């Protein structure tokens, strides 16, 4: 059944723009109380009553941000939503709505765009956000996706990048470097496939890191966890570009320095073994890899006991006076200045 469907190729022109929008969006239902009007009018109408509204948007371009030769469209749809929800959660806010805008070339049949929307639907379902609008247009070559995520928070709950103070503890959720190593595995398989199209890659040993790359999860759970622990971060950011560059953002916005301890950086065993196999330094991967979508935040020293030993959170350093700068303290106790190598989309 699924196989048959894959071989069908309905051209987008057959449906027309309105037919396509209707076809893609008619199975989405609205669940958020704040959604007054969703898809179907000139604009969506939202009502957050006395809450602050939080908005974030991202643009993803084929060949720049994703490669369809190893990124299935369904995963791409899912990940595009995650990337945006992650920004809302990084404000300590609740995500409630998304809009999805697409530019599609006629290289894509309807079935491909359906797959993309299956991923979007999976994400909106799981994270309980309403799809309330978007735009659909054609492109001359590739695929372009822009998603806007909307959410809310009480003003007292919002956490900005700017609130860290010297001596605050630096904390990260989950583990780092997986998405980057997953990408290395997928790129290697792509090269093998080019040489031998009949090769059947065994990705099983790499399933955790491949999943971190193809199907990341935004940390919706962290706001609730912190609330339960009665901890409000002093500053927060999500890790889209790599730990190093995100730490420097917090430092810059908060006007503080930082000591990050290499031996505290949380790494999954699969990341460590993949780094050994690819002969890459795991610390460099965590610092510069990006796309982990974990949350990085600072807390007051007095909250140490509340988060100590929590399996979801790791204390990886502390903030300092701005004059001390931002450093990595290596396992050998050497101090190295942190630099923002990050994931720079302007790099050639
Ligand atoms: P307009 O001419 O005002 O731009 P459209 O015909 O583009 O209106 O869109 C009609 C409705 O469908 C609007 O509610 C719009 O937000 C929604 N919409 C358009 N494209 C998409 C899409 N790709 N995904 C979700 N909703 C969409
Ligand atoms: Mg439109």
Give the overall shape: globular
Percent of residues in helical segments?
25-40%
Structural class: alpha+beta
Low-confidence stretches: 342-348
Mean pLDDT: 93
The N- and C-terminal alpha carbons lie at a distance of 42 Å
Q: Record the strand order, biggest sheet.
A: 8-10-7-11-9-12-13
Cofactors and ligands present? adenosine-5'-diphosphate, magnesium ion
Q: If helices are DSSP runs of H or I spanning 4 or more residues, what is the number of helices?
A: 11
Largest sheet: 7 strands, mixed
Strand content: 15-25%
**Gyration radius over CA:** 21 Å
Give, in order, the helices and strands. HHEEEHEHEEEHHHEHEHHEHEEE
Count of strand segments? 13
Structure, described:
This protein is an alpha+beta fold and 348 residues long. It contains 11 helices and 13 strands. A 7-stranded mixed beta sheet has the order 8-10-7-11-9-12-13, sandwiched between helices. Strands 3-6-4-5 form a 4-stranded mixed beta sheet. Strands 1-2 form a two-stranded antiparallel sheet. α3 runs parallel beside α4, α5 crosses α6 (207-214) and α5 packs across α9 (269-278). Mean pLDDT is 93; it is low at 342-348. The protein binds adenosine-5'-diphosphate and magnesium ion. Adenosine-5'-diphosphate is lined by residues 21, 25, 39-42, 100, 102, 131, 133-136.
């Amino acid at each position: 059944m699924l196989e048959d469907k894959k071989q069908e190729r309905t051209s987008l022109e057959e449906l027309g723009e309105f037919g396509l929008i209707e076809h893609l969006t008619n199975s989405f239902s609205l669940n958020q109380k704040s959604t007054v009007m969703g898809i179907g009018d000139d604009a969506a109408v939202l009502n957050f009553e006395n809450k602050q509204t939080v908005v974030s948007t991202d643009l993803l371009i084929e060949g720049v941000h994703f490669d369809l030769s190893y990124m299935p469209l369904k995963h791409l749809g899912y990940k595009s939503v995650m990337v945006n929800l992650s920004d809302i959660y990084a404000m300590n806010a609740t995500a409630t709505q998304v809009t999805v805008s697409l530019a599609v070339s006629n290289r894509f049949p309807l079935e491909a765009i359906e797959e993309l929307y299956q991923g979007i639907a999976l994400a909106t379902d799981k994270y309980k956000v309403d799809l309330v609008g978007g735009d659909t247009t054609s492109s001359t070559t590739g695929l372009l996706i822009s998603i806007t995520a909307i959410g809310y928070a009480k003003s007292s709950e919002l956490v900005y990048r700017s609130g860290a103070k010297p001596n605050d503890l630096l904390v990260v959720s989950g583990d780092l470097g997986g998405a980057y190593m997953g990408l290395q595995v997928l790129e290697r398989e792509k090269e093998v496939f080019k040489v031998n199209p009949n090769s059947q890659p065994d990705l099983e040993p790499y399933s955790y890191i491949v999943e971190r790359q193809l199907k990341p999860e935004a940390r919706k759970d962290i706001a609730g966890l912190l609330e339960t622990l009665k901890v409000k971060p002093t500053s927060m950011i999500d890790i889209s570009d790599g730990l190093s560059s995100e730490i420097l953002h917090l430092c810059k916005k908060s006007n503080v320095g930082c000591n990050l301890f290499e031996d505290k950086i949380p790494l999954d065993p699969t990341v460590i073994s993949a780094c050994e196999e690819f002969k890459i330094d795991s610390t460099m991967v965590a610092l510069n890899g990006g796309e982990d979508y974990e949350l990085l935040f600072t807390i007051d020293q007095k909250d140490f006991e509340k988060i100590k030993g929590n399996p979801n959170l790791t204390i990886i350093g502390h903030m300092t006076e701005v004059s001390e700068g931002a450093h990595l303290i290596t396992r050998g106790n050497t101090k190295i200045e942190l630099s923002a190598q990050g994931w720079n989309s302007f790099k050639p």
